Amino acid sequence: MNPATQTENYRNQPLAGALCVLIASFVFAILGALVKVVSSSLPNEMVVFSRNICALVFILPWYWYSRPFGGIRTNFFQFHLLRGITGLGAMYCFFYAIARLQLSEAYLLIATAPLFIPAIAYVWMGEPVARNVRRAIIIGFIGIVLILKPGFGIFQPAALAGLGAGVLAALAMVSIRRMSATEPVIRIVFYFTFLSSVFSAGPLLWSWRSPPPAIWWLLVLIGLLATIGQFFLTKGYSFAPAAQVGPFTYSNVVFAILIGWIFWEEALDLLTWAGALLTCIAGIITTRRTETHVIVDATAGTTPYDAGDRSSSG
Fold first, then answer.
1. In Å, how far are 103, 162, 186 from 157, measured between CA atoms?
2. Which of 42, 63, 132, 274 has the most CB atoms less than 10 A away?
3. DSSP code of 248?
4. Which of the 8 DSSP states describes residue 250?
C-alpha cells in the first residue's frame, strides 16, 4: 500500500480518536481534583513542580522505549521552548484557579482556549477568521461573562487566572500544531515535561515546603495521571483531524462537574449553566470550522512524516 494511503487511513479513525480523547478528559478531570486536594496543603509553585518532575520520571522510560528517530535532536527548539513557556504558564494559572474556584468553573475557563486560537492564528500566520467563527467567538465571550459574573466577579484574580490559562493553552496548541508534522509525539511531550520541570524548579527557592507524608503519594499520582492523559490525548489527535475529535475535549467539563458535585457538593447556578452551554457550543463551532490545522500542516515543513507521530496537544 502507498505510504500516503496508509497515513490517510491511520488519520481517518474518528471513533478511536474520540475514545482516546474521552479517556484523556476523564484522566485530566481526576488530576484536577487531586490538584485541588493537595493545594490545600502546598503552595501553587510546589504543586506545579511536583506535577512536572514526577511526570518526567514516568515519561523517561516511555521515551527510552519509543526511541524516536534522531533522539532529542530537533530543528524546532524555538517552538518547543515557546510550547514549554506557554504550557507552563497555563499550568500555573490553571492550578491557581482550581485551588480557588469550583472545579467545574476552572475547567470551564480553560475550555475557552479554542476561542482564542483563531486570533492567535491570525496574528501568527495571517489566517483570516471566517464570519461564522467570529460570531462563535462573540457567543463564547458572552458565555464567559455569564460564567465569571456569579459569585466572584470578572476581575477577581482566580477568574483572570482561569482565563489566562485558556489564552496560554491556545498559544501552546498552535505552537504544537506548527511543529507536529515533523516532530514525534514523544519528543514533543518530552521537551515540554523537561523544560517545564527545569523552569518550575526556580520558584522553589522561595516557596519550598516539605509535603506532609500523606501528600507525597498524591503528588506522584498527579504526575502519573498527567503522563497517561498526555499519551491518550496525543494519540487521539493522531487518529483523526482536530475538527473531528477536538469537540470531545469538552467532556472534561462534564467530568469536572460530576467530580465536584460528588466530592465537594459543588453546584452551578442557572447563569453559569447558560454560560457553560454558550462557551462549549462556541468552542465546538470554532474547533470544527477553523482551518488552522490545514494551514499549519502546509507550512510546517516538507519532510515526509509518519501519521502515528502527529500530535495536537499534550
1. 16, 9, 35
2. 42
3. G
4. G
The domain locations on the chain are 3-309
The DSSP call for residue 194 is H
Rounded distance between C-alpha atoms, residue 60 and residue 44, angstroms: 25
Are 280 and 253 contacting, i.e. CB atoms less than 8 angstroms apart? yes
pLDDT digits (tens, 9 = 90+) for 94-140: 999 999 999 988 998 888 888 887 878 777 766 667 777 778 778 88
| 8 Å CB contact between 305 and 186 | no
| Alpha carbon distance 88, 175 (integer Å) | 13
| CA distances for 79 relative to 170, 171, 299, angstroms | 14, 11, 14
Question: Between the CA atoms of 72, 74, 77 and 80, what dihedral angle is there, to the nearest 10 degrees?
Answer: -60
Task: In whole angstroms, give the CA distance from residue 28 to residue 22.
Answer: 10
Number of helices (H), then strands (E), belonging to the chain: the values are 15, 0
Amino acid in position 44: N
